[in-house]
Amino acid sequence: MLFQDTFKHKGMRKQLIAELRKDERITNESIFDAFYAVPRHFFLDVAFVEQAYSNKAFQIGAGQTISHPITVAFQTQLLEVKKGDKILEIGTGSGFQTSILCEMGAKVYSIERQKELYLNAKKIFDHFHYNPKVQYGDGYKGMPAYAPFDKIIVTCGAPEVPQALIDQLKVGGILVIPVGEGSEQTMKRLIKTSDGDLEVLEFGTFKFVPMLEKTAR
Ligand code: SAH
Q1: Which pTM was predicted?
Q2: Are the beta carbons of 124 and 1 closer than 8 angstroms?
């Protein structure tokens, strides 16, 4: 990891943000501010630094990928993040999405099932002085000890919406989750309108790595 942020990197970030702005679905200004504040190249292998600001997904180890910037921006938009929100994230991965949420003033709880990625992300959070609660575990279970959450974001493709996550969402809370088996998923936003009632909206297809059960080594 290379924790060096130069004018060149900042310039590349501005270009990426200009590209994200072309997407009319992204209207929350604080998302662009967070994308400027969080150097995406810190989350990638040194070999990819030059390409860190293109709108691409990348390998981050353990066979996993950091999501496309537009996907991170879009999921964050759907989550309607407000300062002080208590947010659960499933799939810490590189820690980039986690950092965007921290930068926006959320209190973030994040679960990762790959130990290598969990340990690596923790190092990055220490560097930034972000203070998310990260756990090496199985996201299907959520984090019952810290529930309920205002928002929940799943950053891997789930075959179905895990009941534990619905249970751990506050009434009025938002759950953003790509759902589907196979290589493509439908982005869904669920709002818990009351205990037992969900309002569900769909937002097109995306490609995520699969949400797998139990922890890996
Ligand atoms: N938010 C990440 C996206 C990483 S890809 C980022 O910004 O980089 C999705 C991650 O979900 C992978 O790291 C994968 O290991 C993890 N994952 C898959 N199934 C999981 C589960 N059941 N619990 C926790 N993490 C899971």
Answers
A1: 0.96
A2: yes
